[in-house]
Amino acid sequence: KVKVLTIGEDGKIGLSIRKAMENTSPAPKKPEPVSFEDMLTKFKQSSEERISDLKRSIENRRGGYNRRGSR
After folding, report:
1. What is the pLDDT of residues 22-38, one digit of tens each?
2. How deeply is 7 buried, as exposed, middle or buried, from its count of CB atoms within 10 A (0-12, 13-18, 19+)?
3. Rounded CA separation 62/55 (Å)
4. In whole angstroms, what separates CA 45 from the centre of its chain?
5. Which site among 12, 34, 37, 62 is 20 to 30 Å from 44 CA-CA?
6. Averaged pLDDT score across all residues of the chain
7. Of the candidates 32, 28, 1, 40, which has an alpha carbon nearest to the alpha carbon of residue 17?
8. Cross-strand bridge partners of residue 5
């Protein structure tokens, strides 16, 4: 990473590595590792939510349940 200091009329670009290093913030912390069981639990939960949303969507297209009752 560098910082642009100047751009001359002749097209030359003045750069500085030191100035770029002064303005950088510390590297973000890495997230802690997640266990396989936690990942599996999240996957199952999101999967169940998506399936229920899909079922609701299909029911709405078909007209849902019969409100008048069956004859």
Report:
1. 766 666 777 788 899 99
2. exposed
3. 11
4. 18
5. 62
6. 82
7. 1
8. none
